[in-house]
Amino acid sequence: MSELPGPGTPDPHDGTCPWATGSPAMRAYHDAEWGVPSRDDHYLFEFLVLEGAQAGLSWSTILNRRAGYARAFHDFDVEAVAAMGDDELEALMGDEGIIRNRLKIFGTRKNALAFIGVQEEFGSFADYLWSWVDGEPVVRPADATGFTATTELSDRLSKDLKKRGFTFVGSTIIYAYLQAVGVVDDHVATCPARRR
């Protein structure tokens, strides 16, 4: 006999997006953050760092290291990350709180510099990002089945970001990023978090 969820415990069978029911941390992230539209440059930079770190790994691996990334990268202060020297970045190769991949670590600084360039050109990274969808989230059709890893939007945005000097911004990473920061609302039709 299966046990019923306790008070305050989300029911894993309540129609929530299936990927979010694997652990309490994944469910909490899904319920509080995933797909919530953000226009906060600090948050947008944080998720650019985290999604880039995820390349080739599971989201739960990165989510479990989120605090480690915050410590390693100055609480995602884009100016501080852009100013990190090679020695400071190299020292992160010994930090067990993050994924110790040299390309990803050094890519974080490169992305901070590119992020600042976008802010200078557009006034904010949020203005740049949301201009791709005319300021309104793209909502998953209610009758959609299955999930996609990329879209025409993520393909175009990925190409533009690469031209602007970003790294670890392939179309799959960018589509996950768009979902995470709410530019795309990809909650399944039955999900209680859909279009909150």
Automatic annotation (TrEMBL):
Zn(2+) binds at residues 17, 30, 187, 191. GO terms for molecular function: DNA-3-methyladenine glycosylase activity; metal ion binding. Pfam families: Adenine_glyco. Gene3D superfamilies: Hypothetical protein, domain 2. The keyword Metal-binding applies. Keywords: Metal-binding, Zinc. One of its GO terms (biological process) is base-excision repair. This is DNA-3-methyladenine glycosylase I.
